[in-house]
Amino acid sequence: MLISSHRLNEVSALVNRVIEMDMGKVVLDDRVADDVSLSGQFACRIAIKRSEPAFAKAMQAWNFRDLGDGLAWEGEVPGPDRLRFMGMTSRYVALISNYSLEESGNGHSQ
Hints:
- With about 110 residues, this protein is of the alpha+beta class.
- The chain contains three helices and six strands, in the order H-E-E-E-H-E-E-H-E.
- The protein has a single domain, classed as Alpha-Beta Plaits, CATH 3.30.70.
- A hairpin with a 2-residue loop joins strand 1 and strand 2.
């Protein structure tokens, strides 16, 4: 069965695979593991090599905090939005120098 939705939190219990498309191209194809929390929060820190306005705008849209000069960002990602967030940040993979995504409260790293 194929379910098309922008609201992963509403369909997360029904799916075992998530495919995200952007402008007609697959940008994320991920199997949802049974042990992945889709209800918790993820603490995230991202460092980039140089300041980039498009990246800053994307991080601000996720309510991330600029830790200085636009080179380091910190914020929380809701569990249901984890895959969408990772897909968005994958567009900037050449810019990212450090990426940490840790489930709050249990110490699992992604």
